[in-house]
Write a structure and sequence with these properties.
about 170 residues, binds magnesium ion, binds ligand X6L, alpha+beta, Alpha-Beta Plaits, two-stranded antiparallel ribbon
Length: about 170
């Protein structure tokens, strides 16, 4: 039996191209099949107004909690390969994508490597991240901003652009 125990991490999922919900489900399935990753909890799915590059289709966003024996860089490699398996290509910066997986938090760690900054440096500005994360860890303190996840989620001006999405 492979030991999946390890560190707690939170991963944000997003999709705004094609079969959006299927891509989110497929990503969770592939993470669950990984021998060193356990998917513990899933937020609801939200339909969200695009931020950054605004002339594109609405996103589905959610956040999941995982436990993993992988350290951050190997975990990133797994999430990137899952993005590719789900048809991710990089055309327009901030533009449409079938699947985006972002590591938000990894244990209580802070790291700044090129290509991987943890905690995710802009997560606290994005309602499409903070609203679903707030379902999972409302009381968690984000050290850089000295506020809890719930406080941040409630104070973001674009939280109205993040609407609970009910699967059919
Ligand atoms: C000025 C310039 C203000 C750029 C904001 C914000 C850029 C967010 C990129 C920005 C700026 C991003 C998603 C999204 C993206 C998503 C929704 C990004 C990367 N990903 N919008 N936009 N959901 N709703 O997953 O987050 S592109
Ligand atoms: Mg992203
Ligand atoms: Mg990304």
């Amino acid at each position: 039996m492979v030991n999946k125990l390890g560190n707690q991490a939170f991963i944000a999922l997003g999709s705004n191209m094609g079969i959006r919900e299927e891509y989110l489900r497929k990503a969770i399935q592939l993470l669950k099949e990984h021998p060193h990753i356990e998917v513990c909890r899933e937020s609801n799915i939200y339909e969200t107004v695009p931020v950054g590059y605004v002339e594109q289709a609405a996103f589905l966003n959610m956040v999941i909690e995982v436990k993993t024996a992988l350290s951050p860089v190997p975990l990133l490699a797994v999430t990137q390969s899952i993005e590719l398996e789900c048809g991710r290509t990089r055309e327009v910066r901030f533009g449409p994508r079938t699947l985006d997986l972002d590591i938000l938090l990894y244990a209580e760690e802070e790291m700044k490597k090129e290509g991987l900054i943890i905690p995710h440096p802009r997560m606290h500005e994005r309602a499409f991240v903070m609203v679903p994360l707030s379902e999972l860890v409302p009381e968690r303190l984000l050290l850089n901003v000295h506020q809890t996840v719930k406080e941040i989620a409630q104070s973001l001006p674009d939280r109205e652009d993040v609407k609970l999405w009910i699967p059919n």
